[in-house]
């Protein structure tokens, strides 16, 4: 598995995003690109096997971040108050798809490698935590593998009904939850995970088998 920063795979990445979001009924337009894509406020990462893009995530760098600005009202967690706004990021458009061409690669492994790449970048660029929002079903899966993402329990959703992602926010059977994370907790989790030599062999900084 090669998990690397976004470069020549831009077209494939956007095609995968659009395909997944339209298939799941998350958007009310032909494209899921928003102001953060169009105004170059994102750092993109992809997971790929050879030429196949099997996952993607973006790190939004802005202030305030969209979880607070566009999506939810909530009391900021004390853990986040310790991090200045210019040292925060937001995980967004997180997608992983199973790979079945030569061997089966579970989606949660793709997810973990994407998280590893984005947090390596965060550490190098002094981004110490941030926000995101995910479906309740995805959070349940994340919780099972014990990634330290924390749900903000008391919140009010404020995403506009005419917004690009309103279908995503309006699914009653799979509500959207705001979450926060801290770099130190994620770093410790990944170090413990990748330090297990029975599970992973590191080839280079961004390559494992």
Distance between the termini: 6 Å
Q: Main sheet, how many strands, which sense, barrel?
A: 7 strands, mixed
Order of strands in the sheet with most strands: 1-2-3-5-6-9-7
| Fraction of helical residues | 25-40%
Q: Supply the number of helical segments.
A: 8
What is the residue-averaged pLDDT? 88
Encode the helix/strand succession as letters.
EHHEEHEHEHEHEEHEHEE
Q: Class by helix and strand content?
A: alpha+beta
* Overall shape: globular
Unreliable runs = none
Cα Rg: 17 Å
What is the number of strand segments?
A: 11
Approximately what portion of the residues adopt beta-strand conformation? Answer: 25-35%
Please characterize this protein's 3D structure.
- The chain is α+β, with helices and mostly antiparallel strands and 209 residues long.
- The chain contains eight helices and eleven strands.
- It has a seven-stranded mixed β-sheet, sandwiched between helices. A two-stranded antiparallel sheet has the order 4-8. A two-stranded antiparallel ribbon has the order 10-11.
